[in-house]
Amino acid sequence: MNLLDNKKQDIKIVEKIILITGNPGSGKSILVKKMFFDQSKIGETLANFKKNSFLPMLINLKDCYAESLENIIRNRQKDYNVWKKSFKFIYIFDGLDELSEMQSEIILQYAQDLSEQNNTAHIIISCRKWSLNR
Fold first, then answer.
1. Taking Cα atoms as reference points, which of 33, 107, 96 lies closest to residue 70?
2. pLDDT tens-place string over residues 58-81
3. What predicted TM-score, i.e. pTM, was given to this entire model?
């Protein structure tokens, strides 16, 4: 079943950044989690990971209340022993609408900076359709 069949979601692509918007309960979080699991190739080791594959990193943005997005990404890359290695990443940020306006501006600026890095394949951001953070 295609997650987009019965749900109203909009997907907007700007260079490397993909914005997924939809009404509350439309399946945005489920869609980004499915994207994460589809890209993660569960069961493969980093040594066997194909050179053309991208490592996905799913981050629930409400975690950014206590920690900066930059630190969350750095710590996850260190935890998985991929910090400063030559992998390309797909960053999946869920819940931009759950942040304050100031926090969302910081996240979006950092996402723009990430998009300009060579090791960033894509950035996927989910947000409620009518959120001011969009």
1. 107
2. 999 988 878 899 999 999 889 888
3. 0.81
